[in-house]
């Protein structure tokens, strides 16, 4: 089967570009310096490729990802970098057979972890992103509370996702440094070996963390690629042109096949006009015909992947490249 034979819309990974992204990252952050984030691809087959590049520990955003990774034999060191008080899901993680550490940022999350069999935690510190994480000066109290309930506190985590507002690297570096001052100060009081932070956009900036939680680097998207050109987009949605007139063309890849919160996707040699439920409308530079296939490059890979059941691995970037494997996106759901 060739790329252009796939029923559309279909998620396709450009294999050589994907492998180059993994190699670039493992050269910069070898082994346990990287804790790849599974939320970006939700796929144990893909995670196995990251493991083959030397990374043993993984970051997860949902209990479903944690349990699925452990069941796939990838449970050496799993971090739920997110808060949950769901007793059933906490117990499922505690009994999944892998080593599981969960993030805690409040009395309630500490109590729920301790009551449901979790043994190891990281104190999640808010370093500037308006999301989870305790106030930096509350981290020591939360660590004491956790230790008092018998939990092993491995250290701290803090996600500096707000620095992505700075496309300029120097500005992003300054914002990262400020964010990490909070995290390092909290770590001095909390103790433990781990300072977990970072993302694709700070992978070579964040030197304060002991491990970087990058996710997007493997598949990349059009929103992040200009900020970190070391990694190139390796994931597209293959779509079939289903209607053409003298002004525009329409292909069968819409909102239900694409994460759109970072803006319109890109189509090679074309201007994308709009995306609706089932359609992308675009102005091609050269005439296309009904039945042609096009590559639709998402602006945000994480939600794009979550819409699909499988991704196809292609031997090259071209539309006549062979499909060498099909990977189930098996970590979807919560
Ligand atoms: C807690 C946490 N860490 C790390 C990341 C990885 O970010 P990226 O996909 O930009 O590498 C995310 C992404 O949203 C995240 O939520």
H/E element sequence: EHHEHEHEHEHEHEEEEEEEEHEE
Biggest pleated-sheet summary: 9 strands, mixed
Give the terminus-to-terminus CA distance: 33 Å
How many β-strand stretches?
16
The kinds of small molecule bound in this structure are: pyridoxal-5'-phosphate
The total of helices stands at 8
> How much helix, percentage-wise, in residues?
25-40%
Alpha-carbon Rg, integer: 21 Å
As a percent range, the share of strand residues is 15-25%
Class by helix and strand content? alpha/beta
Shape: elongated
Overall pLDDT:
98
| Poorly predicted parts | none
Q: Layout of SSEs?
A:
Blueprint: E1 10-14, H1 15-28, H2 44-52, E2 57-60, H3 63-71, E3 77-80, H4 87-94, E4 100-104, H5 107-115, E5 120-124, H6 139-148, E6 152-158, H7 169-190, E7 194-197, E8 211-212, E9 235-244, E10 249-251, E11 266-267, E12 270-275, E13 280-284, E14 293-297, H8 301-306, E15 310-314, E16 323-328
Parallel strand pairs: 1-15, 2-3, 3-4, 4-5, 5-6, 6-7, 7-8
Antiparallel strand pairs: 1-9, 9-10, 9-14, 10-13, 11-14, 12-13, 15-16
């Amino acid at each position: 089967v060739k790329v252009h034979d796939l029923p559309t819309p279909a998620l396709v990974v450009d294999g050589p570009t994907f492998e180059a992204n993994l190699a670039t990252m493992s050269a910069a952050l070898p082994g346990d310096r990287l804790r790849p984030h599974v939320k970006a691809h939700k796929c144990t087959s893909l995670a196995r490729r990251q493991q083959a590049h030397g990374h043993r520990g993984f970051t997860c955003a949902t209990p479903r990802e944690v349990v699925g990774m452990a069941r796939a034999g990838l449970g050496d060191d799993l971090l739920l970098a997110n808060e949950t008080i769901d007793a059933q899901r906490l117990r499922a993680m505690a009994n999944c057979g892998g080593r599981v550490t969960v993030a805690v940022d409040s009395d309630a999350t500490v109590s729920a972890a301790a009551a449901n069999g979790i043994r190891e935690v990281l104190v999640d510190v808010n370093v500037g992103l308006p999301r989870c994480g305790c106030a930096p000066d509350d981290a020591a109290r939360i660590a004491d509370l956790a230790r008092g309930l018998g939990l092993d506190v491995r250290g701290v985590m803090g996600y500096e996702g707000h620095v992505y507002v700075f496309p300029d690297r120097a500005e992003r570096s300054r914002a990262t440094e400020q964010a990490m001052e909070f995290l390092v100060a909290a770590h001095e009081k909390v103790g433990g070996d781990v300072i977990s932070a970072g993302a694709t956009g700070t992978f070579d900036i964040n030197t304060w963390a002991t491990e970087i939680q990058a996710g997007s680097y493997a598949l990349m998207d059009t929103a992040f690629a200009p900020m970190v050109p070391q990694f190139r987009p390796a994931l597209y949605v293959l779509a079939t042109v289903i209607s053409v007139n003298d002004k525009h063309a329409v292909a069968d890849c819409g909102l239900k096949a694409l994460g759109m919160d970072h803006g319109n996707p890109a189509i090679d040699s074309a201007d994308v006009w709009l995306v609706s439920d089932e359609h992308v409308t675009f102005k091609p530079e050269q005439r296309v015909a009904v039945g042609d296939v096009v590559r639709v490059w998402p602006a945000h890979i994480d939600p794009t992947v979550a819409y699909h059941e499988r991704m196809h691995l292609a031997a090259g970037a071209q539309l006549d490249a062979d499909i060498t494997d099909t990977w189930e996106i098996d970590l979807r759901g919560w």
